[in-house]
Design a protein that fits this description.
mainly alpha, Helix Hairpins, 0% strand, elongated
């Protein structure tokens, strides 16, 4: 027997995950943690798309999730490359040290 989870519960869970990621982006100073919080926010959006896809019986949400996962993988690769380059230059991964590169 297969049990169904209420879609509202999934949407509330996705909203909680999204706001945890948003607070991590706004509060944390470590760039690696900020990148992880951005990934958390993207996964919350994926969960929302899948939930609406199940509610509406439409495959558009699942196709969107595929593209979001692809973009998230590319963002992770580029972001980590930038973090490594920043660490080699400044010996720090804090967001405050990025301000030093502006001058």
């Amino acid at each position: 027997m297969r049990t169904q989870i209420n879609p509202q519960v999934i949407l509330v869970f996705a909203a909680i995950i999204f706001f945890i990621g948003l607070m991590g982006v706004l509060v944390r100073k470590n760039i690696i943690i900020v990148l992880m919080c951005v990934e958390l926010m993207l996964n919350a959006v994926n969960l929302t798309f899948i939930s609406f896809s199940r509610i509406l019986n439409h495959l558009g949400g699942q196709v969107s999730v595929f593209f979001i996962i692809t973009v998230a993988a590319a963002e992770s690769a580029v972001g980590l490359g930038l973090v490594i380059a920043l660490f080699r230059t400044l010996r720090s991964v804090d967001t405050d040290s990025i301000e030093l590169l502006k001058g």
